[in-house]
Amino acid sequence: MAQKKDFLTIAELSPAELSDILELALRLKREWKSGGNPPMLKNKAMAMVFTKPSLRTRMSFEMAMFDLGGKAMYIGPDEVQLGKRESVPDVARVLSRYVDLIMARVFEHQDVVTLAQYASVPVINGLSDHEHPCQALADLLTILERKGSLKGLQLTYLGDANNVANSLVYGAVMLGAHVTVAAPRGYGLWDEVAVHAQRFAVASGGSVTQVEDARAGVESADVLYTDAWYSMGQESEAAKRAAIFPPYQMNRALMDLARPDAIAMHCLPAHRGQEITDDVADSPQSVLWDQAENRLHAQKAVLVKLLVH
Ligand code: CP
Ligand code: NVA
Questions:
Q1: Ligand 2 pocket, residue 276 CB under 6 Å
Q2: Which ligand lies nearest the alpha carbon of 133?
Protein backbone atom coordinates (compact mmCIF):
# COMPACT_ATOMS: atom_id res chain seq x y z
CA MET A 1 0.00 0.00 0.00
CA ALA A 2 1.25 3.48 -0.81
CA GLN A 3 2.41 5.54 2.18
CA LYS A 4 -0.32 7.95 3.31
CA LYS A 5 0.46 11.64 2.94
CA ASP A 6 -0.22 14.45 5.41
CA PHE A 7 -0.30 18.20 4.98
CA LEU A 8 1.21 19.77 8.09
CA THR A 9 3.60 22.41 6.79
CA ILE A 10 4.46 24.24 3.59
CA ALA A 11 8.15 23.60 4.30
CA GLU A 12 7.85 19.90 3.48
CA LEU A 13 6.50 20.52 -0.03
CA SER A 14 8.83 20.75 -2.98
CA PRO A 15 8.35 23.83 -5.18
CA ALA A 16 6.93 21.50 -7.86
CA GLU A 17 4.40 20.00 -5.41
CA LEU A 18 3.40 23.46 -4.26
CA SER A 19 2.88 24.67 -7.84
CA ASP A 20 0.93 21.51 -8.59
CA ILE A 21 -1.52 22.10 -5.74
CA LEU A 22 -2.00 25.72 -6.83
CA GLU A 23 -2.62 24.72 -10.44
CA LEU A 24 -5.17 22.13 -9.36
CA ALA A 25 -6.83 24.74 -7.14
CA LEU A 26 -7.12 27.14 -10.08
CA ARG A 27 -8.59 24.38 -12.22
CA LEU A 28 -11.11 23.38 -9.54
CA LYS A 29 -12.05 27.04 -9.09
CA ARG A 30 -12.73 27.50 -12.81
CA GLU A 31 -14.75 24.30 -12.86
CA TRP A 32 -16.74 25.36 -9.79
CA LYS A 33 -17.47 28.79 -11.32
CA SER A 34 -18.72 27.21 -14.52
CA GLY A 35 -21.30 24.91 -12.98
CA GLY A 36 -19.69 22.83 -10.23
CA ASN A 37 -17.13 20.17 -9.45
CA PRO A 38 -17.66 16.47 -10.12
CA PRO A 39 -18.12 14.29 -7.00
CA MET A 40 -14.47 13.26 -6.82
CA LEU A 41 -14.70 12.59 -3.10
CA LYS A 42 -17.96 10.62 -3.09
CA ASN A 43 -18.14 8.37 -0.02
CA LYS A 44 -15.14 10.09 1.55
CA ALA A 45 -15.51 11.54 5.05
CA MET A 46 -13.41 14.04 6.98
CA ALA A 47 -13.31 14.77 10.72
CA MET A 48 -12.61 18.39 11.57
CA VAL A 49 -11.14 18.68 15.05
CA PHE A 50 -11.10 22.22 16.44
CA THR A 51 -9.46 23.26 19.70
CA LYS A 52 -9.87 26.95 18.78
CA PRO A 53 -12.63 29.02 17.12
CA SER A 54 -12.95 29.36 13.35
CA LEU A 55 -15.15 30.85 10.63
CA ARG A 56 -13.19 30.40 7.39
CA THR A 57 -11.43 27.12 8.08
CA ARG A 58 -14.54 25.35 9.25
CA MET A 59 -16.85 26.70 6.56
CA SER A 60 -14.43 26.36 3.64
CA PHE A 61 -13.44 22.78 4.52
CA GLU A 62 -17.06 21.79 5.03
CA MET A 63 -18.09 23.36 1.72
CA ALA A 64 -15.07 21.86 -0.05
CA MET A 65 -16.12 18.34 0.99
CA PHE A 66 -19.76 19.11 0.15
CA ASP A 67 -18.91 20.42 -3.34
CA LEU A 68 -16.78 17.33 -4.06
CA GLY A 69 -19.49 14.90 -2.94
CA GLY A 70 -17.94 13.99 0.44
CA LYS A 71 -18.90 14.63 4.03
CA ALA A 72 -17.28 16.72 6.78
CA MET A 73 -17.96 16.38 10.49
CA TYR A 74 -17.12 19.06 13.06
CA ILE A 75 -15.79 18.27 16.52
CA GLY A 76 -15.56 21.39 18.70
CA PRO A 77 -13.19 22.30 21.54
CA ASP A 78 -15.49 21.00 24.31
CA GLU A 79 -16.09 17.59 22.75
CA VAL A 80 -12.75 16.00 22.02
CA GLN A 81 -10.58 18.01 24.46
CA LEU A 82 -7.48 16.84 22.62
CA GLY A 83 -4.91 15.48 25.06
CA LYS A 84 -7.14 16.04 28.10
CA ARG A 85 -10.20 13.80 27.84
CA GLU A 86 -8.25 11.45 25.62
CA SER A 87 -4.64 11.25 24.48
CA VAL A 88 -3.73 12.59 21.04
CA PRO A 89 -2.58 9.15 19.77
CA ASP A 90 -5.86 7.56 20.91
CA VAL A 91 -7.92 10.26 19.18
CA ALA A 92 -5.91 9.60 16.01
CA ARG A 93 -6.46 5.83 16.25
CA VAL A 94 -10.20 6.13 16.86
CA LEU A 95 -10.89 8.72 14.15
CA SER A 96 -8.93 6.63 11.65
CA ARG A 97 -11.56 3.89 12.10
CA TYR A 98 -14.38 6.26 11.08
CA VAL A 99 -13.11 8.70 8.49
CA ASP A 100 -10.79 8.97 5.48
CA LEU A 101 -9.05 12.16 6.58
CA ILE A 102 -8.55 14.29 9.70
CA MET A 103 -8.21 18.07 9.68
CA ALA A 104 -7.17 19.56 13.01
CA ARG A 105 -6.74 23.04 14.45
CA VAL A 106 -4.53 22.86 17.50
CA PHE A 107 -2.48 24.95 19.90
CA GLU A 108 0.84 23.09 19.82
CA HIS A 109 2.17 22.06 16.44
CA GLN A 110 3.37 18.81 18.00
CA ASP A 111 -0.31 17.79 18.31
CA VAL A 112 -0.81 17.68 14.52
CA VAL A 113 2.51 15.85 14.19
CA THR A 114 1.37 13.27 16.76
CA LEU A 115 -2.05 12.96 15.11
CA ALA A 116 -0.32 12.29 11.79
CA GLN A 117 2.02 9.80 13.38
CA TYR A 118 -0.74 7.70 14.93
CA ALA A 119 -3.52 8.14 12.34
CA SER A 120 -3.70 5.67 9.49
CA VAL A 121 -5.44 8.36 7.40
CA PRO A 122 -4.03 11.69 6.12
CA VAL A 123 -3.92 14.62 8.53
CA ILE A 124 -4.22 18.29 7.53
CA ASN A 125 -2.98 21.13 9.72
CA GLY A 126 -5.89 23.58 10.01
CA LEU A 127 -3.65 25.96 12.02
CA SER A 128 -1.12 25.35 14.76
CA ASP A 129 1.17 27.70 16.64
CA HIS A 130 3.87 27.08 14.00
CA GLU A 131 1.99 27.21 10.73
CA HIS A 132 -1.22 27.85 8.84
CA PRO A 133 -0.42 26.05 5.58
CA CYS A 134 -3.97 26.08 4.17
CA GLN A 135 -4.05 29.85 4.57
CA ALA A 136 -0.74 30.17 2.72
CA LEU A 137 -2.11 28.18 -0.22
CA ALA A 138 -5.11 30.50 -0.47
CA ASP A 139 -2.82 33.52 -0.19
CA LEU A 140 -0.46 32.30 -2.90
CA LEU A 141 -3.44 31.52 -5.12
CA THR A 142 -4.73 35.06 -4.62
CA ILE A 143 -1.34 36.56 -5.46
CA LEU A 144 -1.07 34.38 -8.57
CA GLU A 145 -4.49 35.55 -9.74
CA ARG A 146 -3.61 39.21 -9.22
CA LYS A 147 0.03 39.26 -10.24
CA GLY A 148 0.45 36.25 -12.53
CA SER A 149 3.52 34.90 -10.77
CA LEU A 150 5.41 35.06 -7.49
CA LYS A 151 8.77 35.20 -9.21
CA GLY A 152 10.56 38.47 -8.43
CA LEU A 153 7.60 39.99 -6.58
CA GLN A 154 8.27 42.08 -3.48
CA LEU A 155 6.07 40.83 -0.63
CA THR A 156 6.25 42.63 2.69
CA TYR A 157 4.77 41.14 5.84
CA LEU A 158 4.07 43.66 8.59
CA GLY A 159 3.69 42.87 12.29
CA ASP A 160 3.94 39.68 14.31
CA ALA A 161 5.90 36.95 12.51
CA ASN A 162 3.44 34.25 13.55
CA ASN A 163 2.02 30.98 12.20
CA VAL A 164 0.47 32.73 9.18
CA ALA A 165 3.75 34.51 8.42
CA ASN A 166 5.77 31.30 8.68
CA SER A 167 3.69 29.44 6.09
CA LEU A 168 3.43 32.46 3.81
CA VAL A 169 7.16 33.16 3.91
CA TYR A 170 7.99 29.53 3.10
CA GLY A 171 5.58 29.40 0.16
CA ALA A 172 6.34 32.80 -1.31
CA VAL A 173 10.11 32.39 -1.10
CA MET A 174 9.87 28.87 -2.53
CA LEU A 175 8.13 30.34 -5.58
CA GLY A 176 10.80 33.01 -6.06
CA ALA A 177 9.41 36.07 -4.26
CA HIS A 178 11.52 38.61 -2.39
CA VAL A 179 10.02 38.62 1.09
CA THR A 180 10.63 41.26 3.71
CA VAL A 181 9.36 40.78 7.25
CA ALA A 182 8.98 44.07 9.10
CA ALA A 183 8.51 43.34 12.79
CA PRO A 184 9.42 44.85 16.15
CA ARG A 185 12.49 43.43 17.88
CA GLY A 186 11.63 40.07 19.44
CA TYR A 187 8.67 39.48 17.11
CA GLY A 188 10.53 38.70 13.88
CA LEU A 189 10.90 35.33 12.17
CA TRP A 190 11.96 32.51 14.42
CA ASP A 191 15.54 31.46 13.73
CA GLU A 192 14.57 28.04 12.38
CA VAL A 193 12.04 29.59 9.99
CA ALA A 194 14.58 32.13 8.75
CA VAL A 195 17.08 29.32 8.13
CA HIS A 196 14.59 27.21 6.14
CA ALA A 197 13.37 30.24 4.20
CA GLN A 198 16.92 31.18 3.33
CA ARG A 199 17.48 27.68 1.98
CA PHE A 200 14.36 27.97 -0.20
CA ALA A 201 15.52 31.40 -1.40
CA VAL A 202 18.85 30.03 -2.58
CA ALA A 203 17.03 27.40 -4.64
CA SER A 204 14.40 29.72 -6.12
CA GLY A 205 16.27 32.98 -6.67
CA GLY A 206 14.01 34.71 -4.15
CA SER A 207 15.14 36.26 -0.90
CA VAL A 208 14.13 36.80 2.70
CA THR A 209 15.02 39.94 4.62
CA GLN A 210 14.11 41.15 8.08
CA VAL A 211 13.78 44.79 9.10
CA GLU A 212 12.51 46.67 12.13
CA ASP A 213 11.55 49.84 10.26
CA ALA A 214 8.10 49.23 8.78
CA ARG A 215 8.42 52.09 6.31
CA ALA A 216 11.67 50.72 4.89
CA GLY A 217 10.03 47.35 4.39
CA VAL A 218 7.13 48.78 2.45
CA GLU A 219 8.81 50.81 -0.27
CA SER A 220 8.41 49.16 -3.67
CA ALA A 221 6.20 46.38 -2.29
CA ASP A 222 3.85 44.61 -4.72
CA VAL A 223 2.09 42.82 -1.87
CA LEU A 224 1.55 43.99 1.69
CA TYR A 225 0.37 41.46 4.23
CA THR A 226 -0.56 41.68 7.88
CA ASP A 227 -2.21 39.58 10.60
CA ALA A 228 -3.39 40.10 14.16
CA TRP A 229 -0.85 41.46 16.65
CA TYR A 230 -1.73 38.61 19.01
CA SER A 231 -2.89 35.15 17.99
CA MET A 232 -5.43 32.80 19.54
CA GLY A 233 -3.99 31.73 22.87
CA GLN A 234 -2.01 34.97 23.33
CA GLU A 235 -4.95 37.09 24.53
CA SER A 236 -3.19 37.93 27.81
CA GLU A 237 -0.50 39.75 25.78
CA ALA A 238 -2.99 41.93 23.89
CA ALA A 239 -2.37 45.10 25.91
CA LYS A 240 1.41 44.74 25.90
CA ARG A 241 1.46 44.17 22.16
CA ALA A 242 -0.99 47.00 21.47
CA ALA A 243 1.70 49.36 22.77
CA ILE A 244 4.47 47.89 20.58
CA PHE A 245 2.88 47.24 17.20
CA PRO A 246 1.19 50.51 16.04
CA PRO A 247 4.13 51.50 13.75
CA TYR A 248 3.39 48.31 11.77
CA GLN A 249 -0.30 49.10 11.24
CA MET A 250 -1.31 48.60 7.60
CA ASN A 251 -2.91 52.01 7.11
CA ARG A 252 -3.33 54.43 4.20
CA ALA A 253 -0.07 56.28 4.86
CA LEU A 254 1.95 53.05 4.79
CA MET A 255 0.03 51.68 1.82
CA ASP A 256 0.85 54.83 -0.14
CA LEU A 257 4.56 54.12 0.22
CA ALA A 258 4.15 50.86 -1.71
CA ARG A 259 3.69 50.55 -5.46
CA PRO A 260 0.42 52.09 -6.68
CA ASP A 261 -0.78 48.67 -7.83
CA ALA A 262 0.17 46.97 -4.55
CA ILE A 263 -2.41 44.66 -3.04
CA ALA A 264 -3.33 44.54 0.67
CA MET A 265 -3.71 41.14 2.30
CA HIS A 266 -4.90 39.81 5.66
CA CYS A 267 -5.83 36.24 6.55
CA LEU A 268 -8.74 37.43 8.74
CA PRO A 269 -10.24 37.75 11.29
CA ALA A 270 -9.14 41.42 11.24
CA HIS A 271 -8.97 43.68 14.25
CA ARG A 272 -9.92 46.79 12.36
CA GLY A 273 -8.23 49.88 13.75
CA GLN A 274 -5.36 47.79 15.09
CA GLU A 275 -3.24 45.94 12.50
CA ILE A 276 -5.36 47.17 9.56
CA THR A 277 -7.47 50.27 9.03
CA ASP A 278 -10.83 50.45 7.24
CA ASP A 279 -9.40 52.67 4.50
CA VAL A 280 -7.10 49.80 3.52
CA ALA A 281 -9.36 46.80 4.24
CA ASP A 282 -12.22 48.32 2.26
CA SER A 283 -10.13 49.91 -0.51
CA PRO A 284 -9.83 48.73 -4.11
CA GLN A 285 -6.35 47.45 -3.21
CA SER A 286 -7.79 45.00 -0.68
CA VAL A 287 -7.99 41.34 -1.73
CA LEU A 288 -9.22 40.11 1.66
CA TRP A 289 -12.41 38.51 0.37
CA ASP A 290 -10.61 36.75 -2.48
CA GLN A 291 -8.22 35.29 0.09
CA ALA A 292 -11.17 34.03 2.14
CA GLU A 293 -12.85 32.53 -0.94
CA ASN A 294 -9.63 30.93 -2.12
CA ARG A 295 -9.46 28.87 1.06
CA LEU A 296 -12.27 26.85 -0.50
CA HIS A 297 -10.45 26.21 -3.77
CA ALA A 298 -7.01 25.64 -2.26
CA GLN A 299 -8.36 23.14 0.25
CA LYS A 300 -10.28 21.26 -2.43
CA ALA A 301 -6.96 20.79 -4.18
CA VAL A 302 -5.33 19.49 -0.99
CA LEU A 303 -8.23 17.11 -0.33
CA VAL A 304 -8.05 15.74 -3.87
CA LYS A 305 -4.26 15.37 -3.70
CA LEU A 306 -4.45 13.49 -0.39
CA LEU A 307 -7.48 11.32 -1.14
CA VAL A 308 -7.50 10.72 -4.89
CA HIS A 309 -4.02 11.07 -6.37
N1 CP B 1 -8.07 32.74 8.40
C2 CP B 1 -8.60 31.76 9.16
O3 CP B 1 -8.06 30.66 9.34
O4 CP B 1 -9.81 32.09 9.68
P5 CP B 1 -10.59 31.24 10.79
O6 CP B 1 -9.81 31.36 12.06
O7 CP B 1 -11.94 31.92 10.90
O8 CP B 1 -10.71 29.83 10.35
N1 NVA C 1 -2.35 34.21 13.69
C2 NVA C 1 -3.78 34.02 13.90
C3 NVA C 1 -4.42 33.52 12.65
C4 NVA C 1 -5.91 33.33 12.74
C5 NVA C 1 -6.49 32.73 11.51
C6 NVA C 1 -4.00 33.07 15.06
O7 NVA C 1 -3.30 32.07 15.16
O8 NVA C 1 -4.88 33.34 15.86
A1: no
A2: 1
Residue 5 covered by a domain? no
Per-residue pLDDT of the chain (309 residues; tens, 9 = 90+): 568 999 999 999 999 999 999 999 999 999 999 999 999 999 999 999 999 999 999 999 999 999 999 999 999 999 988 999 999 999 999 999 999 999 999 999 999 999 999 999 999 999 999 999 999 999 999 999 999 999 999 999 999 999 999 999 999 999 999 999 999 999 999 999 999 999 999 999 999 999 999 998 899 999 999 999 999 999 999 999 999 999 999 999 999 999 999 999 999 999 999 999 999 999 999 999 999 999 999 999 999 999 996
Cα of 110 vs centre of ligand 2, distance in Å, is: 17
Instruction: Enter the pTM of the model.
Output: 0.98
Q: How far is the CA of 304 from the centre of ligand 2 (A)?
A: 25
Structural domain contains residue 72: yes
Closest listed ligand to the CA of 50: 1
Q: How far is CA 91 from CA 49, 85, 119, 124, in A?
A: 10, 10, 8, 15
Q: Is the CB of 299 under 6 A from ligand 1?
A: no
Q: Are residues 220 and 301 in the same domain?
A: no
- CA 255 from chain centre, in angstroms, equals 22
The answer to whether residue 3 is domain-embedded is no
Range of the domain at 114: 10-132+295-307
Catalytic residues: 105, 132, 135, 227, 267, 295
Query: Which ranges of the chain does DSSP label H, i.e. alpha helix?
Result: 15-33, 56-67, 77-80, 88-96, 109-118, 133-147, 163-174, 191-204, 214-218, 238-244, 252-255, 278-281, 288-307
How far does the centroid of ligand 1 lie from the alpha carbon of residue 2, in Å? 32
Q: CATH number for the domain including 258?
A: 3.40.50.1370
Q: Looking at the structure, do residues 115 and 171 belong to the same domain, yes or no?
A: no
